[in-house]
Design a protein that fits this description.
By secondary structure, the protein is α+β, with helices and mostly antiparallel strands. It has 6 helices and 12 strands. The strands form 3 sheets. Strands 1, 2, 3, 6, 9, 10, 11 and 12 form an 8-stranded mixed sheet that branches. Strands 4-5 form a two-stranded antiparallel ribbon. The protein has a two-stranded antiparallel sheet with strand order 7-8. Helix 2 packs across helix 3.
Amino acid sequence: MTKIYVYPETLRAKASSGAGYPHVAFEFVKRALPDNAKIHLYLPPGFSVPDSASYGNVDLGTIGASGDGSKLTKGETEDIATFGVGKFASNFGADAIFTKEKINDGIALNPNTVLQFDNVSVRSFEFTFKLVSSSVKEAEQALLIENMFRSSLYPELKSSKGLFLEYPPTFKIKFYHGDKQNTYMPLILESYLASMTTTYNAGSNMYHADGSPTEVDLSLTFTETKAITREQLYNRETSINNSDSNTGFNVDAIRNEIQNKIKSLF
């Protein structure tokens, strides 16, 4: 059974009300900490998707001289041969002998530079959350979620002597509209948590009675595990007509699980 953690607590009621409250879910899917866990948070404004590709220049030289399909004239063929011999002779310091005439005429060999596709960039996605707690209980929930994310960023020792490291867990990130997956939002492939910045009490210096901060700001950057192709952009597991129900999305189960996790952390 997947354990679901929610912040703020009102998100649960809003998502289940049928009003279509937007939120985003982060599911631990490999080497999970804890096992089979999913975190639901409100969807921050201004979410952006960075798509980019890299290209490089290639000089086709004489190979691309007749790229339009037309045949080279006899004079053009002779000119190419002249420059070719001059290029070869440059190793012996004699290239000026062969190219002097063309230099004097102000003629240079066209490199026929074209653009070559190299690859697409591996995408990274940034999320910024402001978790403002109104009670000690809600502050504990915010700190639990923070610690779960932080733990998932680091690897574990694989051997007793520290020779090997086990990869951190990966995430499935999905957008929801109420209790259904929002297919109008972009599809994100399985990702690693690449960076995380936590700021405590950015807007005030107020703490709860137990010393917990009233505000926790999380800046998370997730990076997909591989570069994608066009076919993978919209290859969703479910169609827009299918409901993605949140099994176990109930108050009592979550409250008990949060309390148990807090006790184990502190």
